[in-house]
Prior knowledge:
24% of the residues lie in helices and 16% in strands.
Amino acid sequence: xxxxxxxxxxxxxxxxxxxxxxxxxxxxxxxxxxxxxxxxxxxxxxxxxxxxxxxxxxxxxxxxxxxxxxxxxxxxxxxxxxxxxxxxxxxxxxxxxxxxxxxxxxxxxxxxxxxxxxxxxxxxxxxxxxxxxxxxxxxxxxxxxxxxxxxxxxxxxxxxxxxxxxxxxxxxxxxxxxxxxxxxxxxxxxxxxxxxxxxxxxxxxxxxxxxxxxxxxxxxxxxxxxxxxxxxxxxxxxxxxxxxxxxxxxxxxxxxxxxxxxxxxxxxxxxxxxxxxxxxxxxxxxxxxxxxxxxxxxxxxxxxxxxxxxxxxxxxxxxxxxxxxxxxxxxxxxxxxxxxxxxxxxxxxxxxxxxxxxxxxxxxxxxxxxxxxxxxxxxxxxxxxxxxxxxxxxxxxxxxxxxxxxxxxxxxxxxxxxxxxxxxxxxxxxxxxxxxxxxxxxxxxxxxxxxxxxxxxxxxxxxxxxxxxxxxxxxxxxxxxxxxxxxxxxxxxxxxxxxxxxxxxxxxxxxxxxxxxxxxxxxxxxxxxxxxxxxxxxxxxxxx
Length: 544
Ligand code: NOJ
């Protein structure tokens, strides 16, 4: 058992982004309002009642800026506008107002690592070597034999360098060649982004999720990346090299701190960084004095074995890593990774929701996971994701997790009167919001109950841990705020389990994933609970 006495009972003046729950919307797929088969801002506006009914606190919207959509919005051609596909600036303002009128918060996506190759900055930069914006991007000469400057690989396949015949140099792109990397060593680039952050903060956005920040800087002397020791033949070629010289460079930390200073000029804003780094590399993202990012996304549940021992170890390891000023957070899925219900199986989806919403730290939910949506097989002729197109056959494609939200049994699950840009999941007639709302035993209603419980119980939203342990297949932890202690037990196996609880008697069961409350024998001296297969419970403990 791991006891944790360091992180008890957080300050009761906790901010909204510490107490609250974030809900990620992939805007192409949430709700289409104009019949073009792609979701939009007016669609999101029309569904705010749902989000309020569900009980989340903040909405993060993946990019809606003007974009040629080579990477579906992560290739921005104008940072201070809205793509017509998603609506207008007036639609944005209307959405922001409506979100705030419901006392919800709005988080935008910021994409600072790269622009679209159609951004006016890049058009200028590639026009000539003398152009004042030449140095806004990362340009380098070819090797003597004409080869790229080094061995760096694009995350989306092939070399990370593309030759520009017109100016006779290569430019660097961590992702697609249509996403040239900005040169963050150039002060004008930094100043341009200061303007972008201020533009949206002034318009009232409550924070940013900052895309792929670990890629912001590359080694200035362009050293080759060494082979990835974990790579095996048959693995995706994009992972063949470690990213030693292309990610997590020390020049990053001052930039994060600078953004934090800028955010701190405003009241109550949040910065969230996206960086897939090991647990022991997350701390610097908080800043050595808690003066960088508020919430460095923690993706480690996504790769963790779905069993009690590894999960208990992960939670304890993550808690140990946190600097004293660092607020934790957890993510179960997003628009880039397999759906949680597919990863753990439908029988465990409820436990997954219970885990996410009872751990210490801000949870980020992914749209549709509250319905148990699974990965949707995409027929080859309907593949949209450039990653899948470039590096086919490794299961990297993200279309399966970006399919339309299912609302009801009307055409296309109520997502759009037109043909959806990606197919709707096969069981949409039963797996939709309407159907699950009227079923008290649905995952949707469980998620809603968990959100309400988290809001009601400070022990869950901002409390500490009083123990995290694995009891056979059951993951257990106790959340605590003052004298109030709440036990969570998740049976991660498909068989019944019995958990002894020495020194911890249950006062009352607050919530179970399904079925009757667990049996607590009172005829034995050691309190215990019995869980049915795949069952999770949240229970109030008696005073010690
Ligand atoms: C991470 C985003 O989540 C992903 O969708 C995108 O393709 C890359 N960054 C590049 O911007």
